[in-house]
Specification:
eight-stranded mixed β-sheet, Alpha-Beta Plaits, 359 residues, alpha+beta, 2 domains
Length: 359
């Protein structure tokens, strides 16, 4: 009997949550999260909408997702990938891993076949881990969840993929190599360092590499603060992804300021001063797995990379799509733009691009 009691004993919620502090979760936020989990009704803990938790904890969606990702890693909650049918509006649980998602899906209710877009049909929800408390069948109250979603909106799957903590804690979470998911709108930044070859030649590989690493720290930090993440770095260049043009443009402007601060703080003058080139573009693309890591593919990616090539340094070059975005336009209203029609290699037609000098 004593052995059965030991085997059936459930982990202590507060003791398990104590580990959240190692993910930079403040103690007061950890305690508020635990209080929510302890007091919540069963329906509130089954396929929980992150925005509902954000409302209760007084957080924004991104901060809430960072908390939930840490909680998944510690076994407090489980992550679900759910898909909303664009025809009948019903939700279908697709699985607990990105491996369970595919480009096309079929609705279990109306049998409609549709593309499962990461920023539209695909959403993420979370449930209390059954090892802490087994939720009864009555917790699956679709009407209650629909009312929450109608009031707050749902959290798209793309919001999780642009979270650095998710990529760091769950590197195994990626699409199958032969699969892809559409993203109706994403915003991309490509950067590169001007004159890096000369820097390596003038200062030697160790010193130049040290400066390049410091510049990466700046870019990675800015991308996170502005709502995105760095997808990859190639040599001295990075590719970063965001959910909106305004987030990407704000990040690009802040990156230039951050590099200027780095140059000033480290007393970097010629030939060591870092000169950053940045290009920004937005549009649809495909989320894929390349070289065993999450990546993005398509014309939007190609255009963003080509636009970066038009940068002279200490500036941001971006397409007309970025300028026409209402929120991005607010960031530009007091800045002088240099506008130029241009041909982009490999892309048909003439493109209107803009350049703003930041420094």
């Amino acid at each position: 009997m004593m052995l059965n009691n030991l085997l059936n004993r459930r982990p202590n919620l507060k003791a398990t949550a104590a580990n959240l502090t190692q993910y930079d979760v403040p103690p007061e936020l950890r305690d508020g999260f635990v209080a929510f989990l302890e007091a919540a009704k069963d329906v509130e803990l089954f396929h929980l909408n992150p925005r509902y938790l954000a409302e209760h904890l007084g957080l924004n969606e991104r901060a809430t997702l960072k908390l939930l990702v840490a909680a998944v890693h510690e076994g407090l909650v489980k992550l679900h990938w759910d898909v909303r049918c664009p025809v009948c509006g019903s939700y279908n649980h697709r699985g607990d891993s990105l491996h369970d998602l595919s480009h096309d899906g079929q609705c279990a209710m109306c049998q409609a076949v549709f593309a499962q877009r990461l920023d539209h049909e695909v959403r993420v929800t979370f449930s209390l881990h059954p090892r802490l408390r087994q939720l009864p069948p009555s917790a699956n109250d679709k009407n209650w969840r629909t009312a929450v979603d109608d009031r707050l909106g749902s959290t798209p799957g793309q919001s999780l993929l642009v979270l650095p903590e998710f990529q760091k804690l769950f590197p195994q979470e990626k699409l199958l190599p032969d699969e892809s998911l559409e993203v109706a709108r994403t915003a991309l930044i490509f950067t590169d360092l001007a004159g890096s070859t000369a820097l390596y030649a003038a200062r030697g590989d160790p010193r130049a590499y040290h400066l390049v690493r410091m510049h990466f720290d700046v870019l990675f930090g800015v991308a996170d603060r502005c709502g995105g993440t760095v997808v990859k770095n190639i040599g001295d260049a990075i590719m970063a992804v965001f959910q909106s043009p305004a987030e990407a443009l704000r990040a690009a402007l802040d990156m230039q300021v951050g590099i200027a601060d780095l140059n000033r703080g480290r007393n970097l003058t010629e030939p060591e001063a870092l000169i950053l080139k940045i290009g920004v573009h937005s549009g649809p693309c495909l989320a894929v797995t390349l070289n065993d890591r999450p990546d993005y593919f398509g014309t939007t990616v190609n255009v963003a990379a080509r636009v970066q090539g038009l940068s002279f340094g200490n500036d941001v070059v971006f397409t007309e799509i970025i300028r026409k975005d209402a929120e991005a336009g607010e960031l530009l209203k007091d800045r002088k733009l240099e506008t130029m029609p241009t041909l982009i290699k490999g892309i048909e037609g003439e493109w209107l691009v803009h350049r703003v000098v930041v420094l």
